[in-house]
Amino acid sequence: MLTNKAKYALKAMIALSRCAPGALLQSAELAEQENIPKKFLDLILLELRKHGFIRSVRGKKGGYMLGKAPDVIYVGQIIRVIDGPLAPIACASVTAYQTCHDCDERTCAVRRMMRHVRDAASEILDHMTLLDAAKSELKAKQPSARANRSHAKSVERV
């Protein structure tokens, strides 16, 4: 399960991806805009900056911006930095594999099942960029053409 820390990191990164290139967003504004506790957000931003996902500018007019273009930052990268491996168990992980001591890994049905889970999650998260996520959010916020037509018809009847 995705932790709140990773959820907030993704929300912050998507919000930063919506900013114009070079524009800065202050952490207080970001926290309020995305409904994230500011102290928690500050710790998350520090970690994201340490890994090069974002840059910061100090000073009264300072703030945060993406460290790279949003089309080259993948959601899976962010989750791994914040939460660790995508695999639900260590013996199914590619990036943090650990030997399982309580079963035979060659025949363990649980391990095989969890590898499928990891592979499915990786297929989605390692191919979705921040740009993709921001576009998806924007599309979801726009009323659909069908809803607009339906609303227009109900207004005509009144």
Rg from C-alpha positions? 20 Å
Number of helices: 7
Secondary-structure arrangement, i.e. CATH architecture: Orthogonal Bundle
Q: What is the terminal separation in angstroms?
A: 48 Å
Low-pLDDT residue intervals, each spanning 5 or more residues: none
Oligomeric status of the shown chains? single chain
Structural class: mainly alpha
User: Can you list the strand order of the major beta sheet?
Assistant: 1-2
Compute the number of strand runs: 2
Tell me about this structure.
With 158 residues, the chain is mainly alpha-helical. It has a single domain (4-134), classed as Arc Repressor Mutant, subunit A, CATH 1.10.10. It contains 7 helices and 2 strands; from the N terminus they run αααββαααα. It has helices at residues 4-17, 27-34, 38-50, 75-83, 109-125, 130-141, 145-157; strands spanning 54-57, 63-66. The protein has a two-stranded antiparallel sheet with strand order 1-2. A hairpin with a 5-residue loop joins strand 1 and strand 2 (63-66). The model has no long low-confidence stretch (mean pLDDT 89).
